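2024-03-11 09:14:02 INFO receiving multi-entity request
2024-03-11 09:14:02 INFO entity count = three
2024-03-11 09:14:03 INFO echoing inputs for audit
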Amino acid sequence: MIVPALDSAMTIEFRLNGEPISIDIHPAERLLDTLRYALRLTGTKEGCAEGECGACTVYLDGLPANACLVPTVQVRGREVRTIESLDGATLQPFLTGGATQCGACTPGVVMTATWIRHHPEILARHSIRALMAGNLCRCTGYDGIVDSIEAALQEDVIE
Amino acid sequence: MKVACPASLPEALTMLSAEPSAIPLAGGTDIMVNWPQRLSAHQERYLDLSGVMELRSIRWTDDALILGAMTTYWDVIEDGQVAAAFPMLVDAARQVGAVQIQSRGTWAGNIVNASPAADGVPVLMAYDAIVVLESTAGRAEVPLADFYLGYKDLRRGPDQLVTEIRIPRRSYRFHRFQKVGPRRALAITKVGVAVTCDGDDWRVVANSVAPTVCRCPAIERRLSAGALSGPEDLLGPIRDDVSPIDDIRSTARYREAVLARLIYHTVQDAASSLNPHER
Amino acid sequence: MGFPPNGELALDRIEGLSKLTGRERYVDDLAVDGCLWGMTVRSPSPRGRIREIRFDQDIDWSKFIVVDHRDLPGPNEVKHIETDQPVLAGNYVRHVHEPVVLLAHSSRHELRRAVQAVTINVSEEPAALDFRVPPTPSQIQFGGDNVFKHLTIVKGNVEQALADAPVVVEGTYQTGAQEHIYLEPQGMLAYQEDGVIVVKGSLQCPYYVHAAMMHALARPADRVRVIQAATGGGFGGKEDYPSVLALHSALLALKAGRPVKIVYDRDEDMAATTKRHPSWVRIRTGVAADGRLLAQDIQVLLDGGAYVTLSPVVLSRAIIHAGGPYHCEHVRIEGKAVFTNSVPFGAFRGFGAPQTLFATERHMDRIARAIGRDPVEVRRINLIRDGQTTATGQVIDDGVDRDALLSQALTLSDYRAKQAKHTAFNAGHPYLRRGVGVATFLHGAGFTGAGEVNLDSVVHVAAMPDGGIEVRTASTEMGQGTTTVFTQIVADRLGMSADRIQVPLPDTARDPNSGPTVASRTTMVVGRLLERACDDIRRQLGLPDDARGDTIHSAVRKWFATPRDGPLIGTARYQPPPGIAWDEVGYRGDAYGTFAWASYVAEVEVDLRTWTTRVLDFVAVQEVGKVLNETLARGQIQGGVVQGIGWGLMEECRWRDGAMENAQLTNYIIPTCDDTPPVRVAFVEVPYPHGAQGAKGIGELPMDGPAPAILNAVAAATGSDPCTIPLIPERLMELLLA
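2024-03-11 09:21:47 INFO inference complete, emitting structure
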C-alpha cells in the first residue's frame, strides 16, 4: 500500500495489543508519543529520549524495541505490544522477588523480562544479564530483577 | 517534515532520484536520538525503507554472504549460519547497545551514518565487505575499505541507496573483534579493533581512533613482518595509521595505549591458540 | 485473629503490582484538561550581570505565557536553609543553566522553538570554577575567600599527638560529583482550585515545597497545597529541587489561569539540577607501630556550588562521619564549604558521609601499607568498642560486636582464600589482575544533633467509619518501601490485617508534617511515631495497651455510633530518646540517636590491557537494628551498593563552565545489569529501642562502603594507590604508567 508523502497528518494502520487500529499521525511523531499522548497508554514511560534507559520498551513484531526511537510511521502494517497487554496475574514472581522499587523503569523491565520468559531457548546463547542490559534501573541494583526472572522461569517450567 | 514510504526497491530509487536530499531512514536508532529536541531535523525529508521488503534478507551464494540493507544486528545474532562463518559479526552485534537497539539497528544504517565509533563497520571491513549501491542509473560496488573519504564523507551519491552488503566467503585462521567502552552494554566505543588473519594476510580495522573507521596498513605490515616483543612495537605503526583524540569519552593517550595492548595480546592469543572469541 | 504478633509480618510491596503493570501514575501520566506545558530559559553564562533578554521577532509571543522574576508575588527567594537562591534570576546570574525566564504553551514543540528564541545576554564576570583552588580577588563572591560554612570538631590535642606519633601517614582523597539518574525525570503540575495554588508532582518532601511556596508566593498555609504524585526515584535529588520546580510551575499557572505542567528532559535534568557535592579530603594520621590510631587530623572541603542549598548540613554529616567507625583519642576534623559558580549541589543518598568515609577507608589501607601490616588487622585494632567515644565525644554503647561483623564479611566473601588464590592468579596471567578490598564504616540515621527535635514531627493514624485505617504522614514513597513498611508497622501495632490499612500519597491539605523523607529516618523515626499514634487510638477509646484487632474494631464502631464530623485520629509528636545531648556551637556530644554499622568486601578484576575494573563479587554485611521486611531491606542495600559501584568506577561528571558537559545518558555512565555482580547481603540485628520495632535507618548506609572497598581491591590487585573517584580506566592508566 503506497502512502503518499504529506506534510501534516498521515493515516496509518497497525495492530496494537492484538487489535487493529487506524490512526492519524504526524510524520515526526515517535511511537512513544503516539502511545502516551494520542492513545493515553501511559504504561510505557519516557526516561531519556536517547534509547539508553529502556523505560520505553515495547514489542515491535515480537522483539523488544525502544519506542522513543521508533518513528510511528514505521509501525504501519506491523504488530505493536505494550505493557498494557500483559496479564498481571503472571507477574507474582516479580512482586515477591523485589523486581520493582520506584517503578519508573519497571514497565520496560517487565516487557523485556516477559519476552525472555516467552523465549527461554534464547538463554542457550545469551545470559539474562546481557539481555536485560538495555533496561537501566537505579533502585534495585538489578538483583531483584534477575532473581525474579530466574524464579519466573522456574515457575514456567513447573507449569 | 515529509516522509516518503515506498513499498518496493524500484519505487524507493525513483523517489530518491526525484528527491535526492531525502534522508534514508532504516532502523532509526541514530536519527531518532533526542528527536523531540532536534527541531531542525524535523524540517528534513525522509525516505522510509521499512516497507521495502526486498531489503530485509540474508542470503548466501557460493562465494558470498549477502546482507540486505535492512538486516538488523539481531537478525545476524540469531542466524547460526552467519555465526559459524563470520563470528566477528555476531561479536560486534552483541556489543551494540542492547537488545532493544539490536532489534532495530541495521548494518547498512551503521555504514551510512558513518560514525567514527561505528561497531558494525570494523568487522565488515575486516571481512573485506563490499557495499552495493543502487540508483535509477544503475548499480555500483565499492569495497567498504574505500567507502569513506573523510569524516562523514562517503562514496555515496545522494540518489544512491545502499541495498546490500556482500561479504566474501573465506576461511579465517583467526578473527576477533574487541570493543572497549565505558561499560559492558549501552556503550559508545572508546577504542575498538577487528583483527583477521586468513593465513597469509592480516586485516586490522580500528574504530574511534580516527575521523573514520579505517584499515591500518602499517599495523598490518608490522604483523606480517614477524613476532612482537610487546605493545610498544606497535606504537610507531599506530601513529602512522590513526590519530586518536581527546574527547568527551576518552583521551588520545588512553586510546593509543589500549589499541597497542589489544592488538598485541590478540596476536599472542592467536599464536597460542586460545579461544579467539573469548569476550 | 490468627495474625502474627510482634512484628513478623512482611508484606509484598503494596503498590508493587500497580508498578509492574504500568498502572502507577507519575506526573507525566496525568492528563489534565486545558493543561499547558512549561519550559525554562536558562543562563548561558556562569557569572555576570544580565544585560539584556532578547525575544526573537519570529515568534508570536502573545501566544505564550511569559514569566520572569517580576512576577513573584513575594520575595524572589527559594526558601531552603537560607534564602540566597532566587526563584528566577533577576539582574544577576551565578551559574550556567540558572533559570531566568519561564514559558508556557499548549504545544511542547512550539515551546521548544520558543525557548531557543530567547537570548539571555550576560556581561560576564570572572567565575570561580575550581573549589580546590583559593579564589582570585575578582572571583570572590562571599566573605574574603568564598567559604560560607566552616565547622570544626576537636577532641583531645591533635597537634601534640601527631608530634609524638612514631609514624605519620598523610593522604589526599577526592570524590567527584554524582548525578542521581532517578529513572523518572523531575516534573511538577500546578493548578488553582478555590483560591488555593496546588502543586502535584515528583517530590520527597511535601512540606519543604509548601514552605517555599508560602514564602515566595506570599500566601498563608491554607492557600498552598502540595500533593505527592507517584515518584520514580529520588535519592535526595528530589529533596530540595522540587521547591524550585513547584514555584516555576505555580508562577506559570497563576499567570496563565490554567494548569501548567513542567517535565524536564533528561539532559536538562542532568545538567540543571543538583548533584552530590564534590569533595577534597586531606588526612594526616599519627599511628603506633601496631597500627593503632593515635591522632587524626582531617580537612574536608566541599564544592558548595553557586547557592547554599543544603551544603551546611552535608558538611556537618561529612565531618561527623570522617573519623570512620574507629576510636581515636586525639581528633581534629575541619570542614569548609566554598562557593563556586557551578550548578548548585544538593542532597544525594549519604549526604556527605560517603565522601569522607571514602577518604577514611582508603587511608586505612594506606596506613596499613605504610607500616607493613594487614589492612584488616589495622581496622580490627581500631574499631570502636562499647564504652569508647567518637570524635564528637559520643559514647558508643549499643552492644554491637563490630569485630564479629567484620569477621562475618570476611567469611562470607572467602577473603583470605581469595587473597591466596589471587596471588597465584596474578603471577600467571598475562594481563588480568585480581584483588579483594575491605571497608568498615558507620552511618548515623535521622537528623543530626537537635535536628529531629527541630523538625518536631507529627503523624496521624485515622480510624475511619468503614473500619479502615488511614496513615497520614508527610513521608513519601519513592521506591524505598514507605507504603509497605508503614502498613506493616500499623497492622502489627493494631493487630489488624494489612488490607484494612491505607497509606495514601501525602497531601498537605490532609496530612501533618512528619518531616522530610531523607536522612534514613522514615522507618526508624516516623515509623516509631506511627506506633505511638496507634497507641493513642487505644488510649482515646479507653482500651488497655494489649487490645488488638477485633477489640479495637468494635470500640471504633461504637465510637462512630455517636455522630462525628471526622475520623478518630491518633496522634504522636516526636520525642527525643532520653539522654541525648548535642552542643551545636561546640560541635560536641551525641550526633545521632544511634549508628548502623557495616563491613563490605569487594573482589575485582583489573584488565591491564584496558585498565577496566570489573567487580566480580560483593559482600555487604550490616547491623541494622531490626529488619522489618527482608525483600525491601535487601533491595535497599543492593541498590545502594550498585550506586556506589557506579560512583567509584564509572560516573564521571565532565565540567565546562561549572556545568555538566556530558549531560546525556549516553555519556554519563551508570552501571547496567551486565556490569555488576550479584550483591550478597547479610543482616545482623541488635534492636534499637527507639526505632520502630527496633529498626535503625538503612537507606543511605550502603552508599558509604562500595567505593573504598573497590579501590582498596584495585590497589591490592595492581599495587597502585588510587585516591580519586571515579576510578575510570583513563585515571588508573595514568596511575600505573606514571
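2024-03-11 09:21:48 INFO post-check: Chain A has two domains: 10-83, 86-158.
2024-03-11 09:21:48 INFO post-check: Confidence is low (pLDDT under 50) at residues 1-6 of chain A.
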